[in-house]
Amino acid sequence: MPSINHGEHLPQYLKVITFIQNKISNGEWTFGQKLPSQRAIAAAFNVNRTTIIHALEELKAQGILESKPGSGTYVSNQSWSNISKQVINWNAISQYSFHAGNPRTIQKINDYETDSTVIQLGKGELHPSLFPTQAFRTSVENISGSFNLCGYSDGAGEIPLREAISARLQEEGIHYSSSSILIVSGALQALQLISMGLLQQGTYVYLEQPSYIYSLQVFRSLGMHLKGVAYTGGELDVHDLETQIRANKKPSMLYLNPTFQNPTSKTMSWNNKQDVLALAKAY
């Protein structure tokens, strides 16, 4: 929570009430929005939860807040007009999109991303305590004097980086010049560019079930049809895939995460990869 001006002479529960009313009146908290937990508010004000409960009950009595059993405390719509002064509910507006929303299961997973009490096994990220902070700081300091770019760089990526990648690929027998290499911000941007450049709306995208959740919305947003393929113990069911391909008879693409698959962490066997490759060549 942001820093708080508690006031000097108000009782603690009134400071909490004033804080919440200000959040609502300036439009930061809009109707239907869930408030931070009682524990979080208590920590911000350095008071016990009893004080917070007293303040929340007062605001509920005024119709400013409402409780939803098992869910939490929310800004009420009943007296919104009395406190808000025609504030636009940008949070509600931002929920709309030209594209279909994520399924509820994925929405729940996204909600847990900001919950510090939940261990994020699917993200593959180090815990902050494991990050080599000092080594990273030293590296940045060592190269800080070499920065001389104040505008936009090459849209395809830094030329020295592309040249280094080209040289590395040639060592592996893959011959592409630096001008043929495009640096992307991450796998999702690459998937989006591939989908926009190579696929047509309505293309069937076959993928492991389960698959990497953040890739699903990329394909959906571009009008692709997702088809799950049985995936057990790190092995893709090639027979299931071929059966679906024959039944659909439309342009299709296979999206796989064969090494340390997300979310299962499994790696496909060499034979399974060869079977998939043979099927791709056949179709």
From TrEMBL:
It comes from the Bacteria. Its cofactor is pyridoxal 5'-phosphate. InterPro entries: HTH_trans_reg/aminotransferase, PyrdxlP-dep_Trfase, PyrdxlP-dep_Trfase_major, PyrdxlP-dep_Trfase_small, Tscrpt_reg_HTH_GntR, WH-like_DNA-bd_sf, WH_DNA-bd_sf. PROSITE patterns: HTH_GNTR (PS50949). GO terms for molecular function: DNA binding; DNA-binding transcription factor activity; transaminase activity. Keywords: Aminotransferase, DNA-binding, Pyridoxal phosphate, Transcription, Transcription regulation, Transferase. Pfam families: GntR. Residues 10-78 form the HTH gntR-type domain. In the C-terminal section; belongs to the class-I pyridoxal-phosphate-dependent aminotransferase family. This is PLP-dependent aminotransferase family protein. It comes from Salicibibacter halophilus.
